[in-house]
Amino acid sequence: MHINAALQAVYLENIGECVIFQWIEKIRELLQEQLFAKDQVEENEEVVEDLSVKLDSVSVDTDELPEIIHGEIITDRRSVFQGHVARVFSTRQVKQVLDKLYEEKTIEKATHNIYAYRILKEDTKSFIHDSEDDGETQAGARVMHLLEILNVQNVLVVVTRWYGGTHLGPDRFRHINNSARQVLDKAGFIPVPGQQQIKKKK
């Protein structure tokens, strides 16, 4: 109806003249306006979606510091490893936990503080995740892989290593992995085999 009215207006303005070319120009003009409006709507929708994601991230943040659980100490040739774990629901809480750990000077000055986290976004069923090697190449990725194969979520794991002066070779990765697994188990984050099936039967 909008196009018909516009073409009728062109005709009335040019009564007695050939208006075919004016109609073509008017139609082209109207189509360009519609395309521009569509692009604006899509752009606005993207902005709203992006903003909603950010607001959703903010909504799960809290000023309360998550509880940090510390694992057992593993020692090998004077190198010392210790895992730490906390339940987190946002990257803000990840930073809170890391900042709290680094307040302990012995942890802050450790040779490496390796960490990985996996946070489930309930709305999209996707994960926010990241890892840090802190100078121990591929160590963060290995801890992340552990979180994935254990299928744990909303968890930050930090493994602190104090170097003892003797190179451990591949053994260092075994100790990092064991430190992470041990503290996850201590905190109760590792699902017990068969637990889900028992809950379903109930």
From TrEMBL:
It comes from the Eukaryota. Residues 77-184 form the Impact N-terminal domain. Belongs to the IMPACT family. This is Impact N-terminal domain-containing protein.
